[in-house]
Predict the structure.
Amino acid sequence: MYVAVKGGERAIEASWRLLDQARRGDTNVPELSVAQIREQMRLAVARVMAEGSVYDEELAALAIKQAAGDLVEAIFLLRAYRTTLPRFGYTVPVETEHMDVARRISATFKDVPGGQVLGATYDYTQRLLDFALLAEGDDSPDNESIARPAASHEAEPMPRVVTLLNNEGLIEQETVSGEGAEPGDLSREPLSFPADRSVRLQNLARGDEGFLLAMGYATQRGYAHSHPFAGEIRFGTVAVEMVLDELGEAVEIGEIDLTECQMINQFAGSKDMPPAFTQGYGLTFGHGERKAMAMALVDRALRAGELGETLASPTQDIEFMLSHSDNVEASGFVQHLKLPHYVDFQAELELVRRLRAQHGEAQGEPRDPLSADDELQTGEAA
């Protein structure tokens, strides 16, 4: 706690009480429940889970309520709670190709194996305010059945669109190697450089959506060698498995909703690689297509060095992008400026006054007999 003046602690406690009142709002209006936030603000819940690094819809909804809708504050709350949780182990990699798909589209091929699944999205709506939502309650008889998007329950795995390019050798091959080094863990180790792709993807997965969106947009405006195509975007439910020592095999411990994006980019080739398509990858908790797409765009930009491309933009600078993408860290640095800096400022003030006096003397200006310092001392004496 930062207590700078006498009585500061009582003032802070009073601020807490005012905060509770401000969060609750008009008591004549029914209070918003955590269950309502979880079910009816699912996109906000998804963002808080992703950037808070905790997949728990109830806790994310609670954080949104406590933060009065400030998503960055809610992310901070969830991230802080995460540090108190024990680590039981690691799950095996999820198989998104076996996703129980609720939405799946491709901008590269019209006809794809498994078909285009439009699902629940704002993409095809007119951006007009629906004043019918101002009415209290919903008389729809099927309200319960449409509250959450239903998965398609495909019997067979839905292959990825990039498989079509893989079959012709037109896109870089990305395979899992059992001989590679263990990926880093940003939840246990601080970010350090150089950062390999596994660490970069972890950083981007919980990076601020607005920052990634702006940087992804910048890559398309000439601040990277990028001409992207949305190879595939899919949202749905995947099984999570964990190897139990007692059994010696992986068992399913639950299901989570994920959004995955594979962005396809042109690549002119190099002396070691022929011309082909390359990939940028994005994955996020819940339904978060904008975040996954922006993440994929940035991921591809950050691969410029390994692909032999010229590094000519901040969007290709790994240290710049990763160091500034975390909204919890960024918020802390910005908001700490609200804390008392009385001593520091007085030192700066004294320095500027002295420099101005020296500058005036150098210009031949007569020195004011009652300087600012004298005025301050006179005021204190009075």
Summary: The chain has a mean pLDDT of 82. Residues 96-122+147-174+185-334 form one domain. The first strand starts at residue 100 and ends at 105. The longest helix spans residues 342-362.
